[in-house]
Amino acid sequence: MPEGPSILILKEKTQQFKGQKITEASCNNNAIDADLLIGKTIINFKSWGKHFLICFPEFTVRIHMMMFGTYRINEHTTKPPRLHLLFSNDTELNFYACQLQLIEQPLDEIYDWEADIMSDVWNSKKAIKKMLDEPELLACDALMDQQIFSGVGNIIKNEVLFRSRIHPLSLVSAIPNKKLKEMIDEAIKYSYEFFEQRKQGTLSKHWQAYHQKECPRNHVPFIRKDTGRSHRTSFYCEKCQKMYK
């Protein structure tokens, strides 16, 4: 599943379509009425965590890549795209295996922009308050909660917990405030590293925990286990990642 940094890269790549008028559109599962898009001009692209937002004057198309979503710019595959957009200058934008939604409300009424880990208005104090409002919340679940850390996925979760030396099954309410701030700082720092490494095609070469077999600090086997309410896989070292209870 593409994480927040990958959606920011998509936003960068699609800037060429800003201000372009759509001349042809199709949706292969009728999730949205593609005819609504024909003749419309894209006024902006936005992102909120894992959500990619194509903005028009009267509405927004939300795209969520889910687990296997992909896109093609000025090219297409042999499979019909979930959403196909052709522009007046004969350029095209295609999305595959994604979830679509038409949003007619103002985006500020739907999204808490301060919860986006890579937003200019990210709010650490608000994130800490949201976490502490759930005393039984586990560290692995806190990082994966899109209302707290929008854009964080399983790769970022694992790398951040390893860097901050926090066991994924730690209770957030038991983690010292200084350590919580360290976790947040690492989440921000690693998200931007992820962004640059993804663009360079070197992301997996830098993983210290995710899908790794051995702790690079202690040279003992990583534990691999599905954790938390999301049951997503955690990779962790029981020797250097402290369990806070």
Automatic annotation (TrEMBL):
Q: Which PROSITE patterns match?
A: FPG_CAT
Q: Which UniProt keywords apply?
A: DNA damage, DNA repair, DNA-binding, Endonuclease, Glycosidase, Hydrolase, Lyase, Multifunctional enzyme, Nuclease
**Domain Formamidopyrimidine-DNA glycosylase catalytic: residue ranges:** 2-94
The biological process GO terms on file are: base-excision repair
- Tell me the GO molecular function terms: damaged DNA binding; DNA-(apurinic or apyrimidinic site) endonuclease activity; lyase activity; oxidized purine nucleobase lesion DNA N-glycosylase activity; zinc ion binding
- Chemical reaction(s) catalysed: Hydrolysis of DNA containing ring-opened 7-methylguanine residues, releasing 2,6-diamino-4-hydroxy-5-(N-methyl)formamidopyrimidine
* Top-level taxonomic group: Bacteria
A Pfam family it matches: H2TH
**SUPFAM superfamilies according to UniProt:** N-terminal domain of MutM-like DNA repair proteins, S13-like H2TH domain
Record-stated family: Belongs to the FPG family.
Q: Report the protein name in the record.
A: Endonuclease
